[in-house]
Amino acid sequence: MTPPGPPALMVEKVSHSYGSRPALRDVTLTVPQSRFTALLGLNGAGKTTLFSLVTRLFHTRQGSIQVLGHPVAREPGEALRRLGVVFQARTLDLDLSVMDNLLYHAALHGIGGREARARAEAVLRDVELLVRARDRARLLSGGQMRRVEIARALLHAPRLLVLDEPTVGLDVASRRSILRHVRDLVQNRGVAVLWATHLLDEIDPGDAVVVLHRGRVVAAGEAGEVAAGATDLREAFMRLTCDGQDDAP
Ligand SMILES: Nc1ncnc2c1ncn2[C@@H]1O[C@H](COP(=O)(O)OP(=O)(O)OP(=O)(O)O)[C@@H](O)[C@H]1O
Predict the structure, then answer these.
(1) What is the ipTM metric for this complex?
(2) Which of 15, 56, 172, 208 sits in a 20 to 30 Å window from 112, CA-based?
């Protein structure tokens, strides 16, 4: 059951262009509270551009974005306080220890001292990396770095976690463990998740799915609904995107 109140994320009529090249066209989508929503799209569909607008790396010039009812443009502090982000590119400082990476991020959110350390220990325990707290980040594997980035994104206890293709480049076991952890956050802690991917095997039948193609939302609903009329979600996705990726030559 969806908790009362505003959706975790509401994107309304958002468009964005790089120069004359449109990357998002009139995008409207909703991420309900306490649910796993997959943002599915091929390379160049516009997923990273959307994340850049949600996280305020870019200004939204057309349309509006709200996090738990707080407009990102007008109430950025309130909106970003409720948002945790895992970017596609690696963002740990490799020369700092795992713990210092987390403490630095906590400080950015105004959390310091013992409280910061206690939270950092708790989130590292959750991703089973507390034993590596003193190691420099560069000593971790790719999958472990991702888990630390997820832990870091949760330090300030956000209600919405957005992850941009978090499992790309990882082996099967790491992918599975990261996905399991994130699904657990949804089920047991009520965190809302927006998970951008082009990997269909990461999606369960009951997940909410938004298919983005060439900067437009071309389907949205439960995975089962999106797959209706096709043999499965894979076939439905192929049909929806059969004219190829946006950055194809
Ligand atoms: N900084 C930029 N300058 C110009 N064009 C860009 C820039 N970033 C993205 N684009 C273009 O905008 C479109 C959407 O790209 P975006 O990176 O948002 O897609 P994506 O779905 O995240 O793709 P991928 O899965 O490859 O990361 C593409 O056509 C891309 O070439």
Answers:
(1) 0.96
(2) 56
